[in-house]
Amino acid sequence: MSDRFGKEDFKLGFGLMRLPKRADGSNDTEKVAEMVDRFIEAGGTYFDTAFVYDDGDSERVTKEALIDRHPRDSFTLCTKLNAGIPGLTEQTAKQQFHTSLERTGAGYFDYYLLHALSRNNVRYYEDFGIWDFVKEQKAKGLIRYYGFSFHGDPQLLDELLTEHDDVDFIQLQINYADWDNPGVASKECYEIARRHSVSMTIMEPLKGGALADPNDNIKRLFKEAAPELSAASWGIRYAASLEGVIAVLSGMSSIEQMEDNLSYMRNFKPLSESEYKVIAAVQKELEKDNSIQCTACKYCVSGCPMDIAIPGIFAVKNKETGNWDGGRGAYQIATEGRGKASDCIECGQCEDACPQHLPIISLLKDCANLE
Ligand code: SF4
Ligand code: SF4
Q1: What's the structural domain count of the chain?
Q2: Ligand 2, atom nearest to 295 Cα
Q3: Atom 6 in ligand 1: residue holding the nearest Cα
Q4: Quick one: what percent of the chain has pLDDT higher than 70?
Q5: Is the predicted pLDDT of residue 357 greater than 60, yes or no?
Q6: Same domain (yes/no): 119, 224
Q7: Which range marks the domain in which residue 350 is found?
């Protein structure tokens, strides 16, 4: 692994996608600032945001909680350009870079990614000349390391790494639940990245938080193996144990989650052979799970012409226990003032945007029974 990325012994990255909220639903900048301070004090340096996170509010919070309050050389910042948003032109896609610089006030980006590449959007990055544009910014010193985050199939990853063999790093979705999941193909993508000798950052090590709170059978397996460790620790350490990984991004939303993450990532120890056996037992248990595998990333939401709260509806569906009144109440809260599952006009925009490749249209039909 390259040593040019700095700290080899502190692989926890601070993901700024799922920020703590105030009672009114807005992002709680003060709480983020408190977490930022704790993270840096503990030795953390890597912060990860994106132009699209929270419609730009993540970058604003990053400025106020991190950039305005800490010396610029005491941390590294990653953000991302998303050319796949419906309706963009070459100019508006490129403008994202300048807007991100303005919003964050960072001066330059340590890491910059073409965001969420897949077969559904890769043509926009080509057609708009984004690869060359990003390299121009790097030549100007406005980007230190560039690459792409990836949600496509292994063959596409191989093609991209062959064609763009000068990328400094890539970001992959890797967790033990998706290791052999054909829709995500964590294992195959990881192996291709290793064949191309490219360094990686890891996103979704806890699958949008789902692996931090697994079902009771899985919790029991973890507790029997190590009563003192959280379920989250297994997912984060699983990703961090892989060779070639420079940072595992954890979307920490509270000081408690951060303290938990820090407790096993400050003096990180890779999983042992016996711990891998526990993971294998958990993976077997997960085969029985038929819940909707939505990570609540919200990439599907902004392009929906019916303004359907897709991840919120799926969360309610996953919690449905046959208690129809309870399920209906939660559904009404999740969809208040928004489109309902039955309002879907099957335009397909959401399915093109979904990094988990979920069959959203048919899943919404299943959810309509909650109305
Ligand atoms: S297919 Fe349905 S849910 Fe998806 S974007 Fe179109 S209207 Fe919205
Ligand atoms: S349905 Fe897909 S795109 Fe939408 S929030 Fe869930 S995982 Fe993200």
Answers
A1: 2
A2: 7
A3: 347
A4: 96
A5: yes
A6: yes
A7: 310-370
User: Which residue minimizes the CA distance to atom 8 of ligand 2?
Assistant: 297
- On whether both 219 and 269 belong to a single domain, the answer is yes
Residue nearest to atom 7 of ligand 1 (CA): 344
Q: Taking all residues of the chain, what is their mean pLDDT, rounded to a whole number?
A: 93
Of the two residues 6 and 229, the one the predictor is more confident about is 229
Distance CA 147, CA 42 (A): 27
Angle of helix 29-41 relative to helix 255-265, nearest 10 degrees, comes to 20
User: Which atom of ligand 1 lies nearest, measured to the CA of 307?
Assistant: 8
Nearest CA to 198 out of 131, 145, 244 is that of 244
Choosing from 302, 308, 310, 356 the residue with most ligand 1 atoms within 8 A of its CB, the one to mutate for a pocket test is 308
Closest listed ligand to the CA of 354: 2
The model's pTM = 0.88
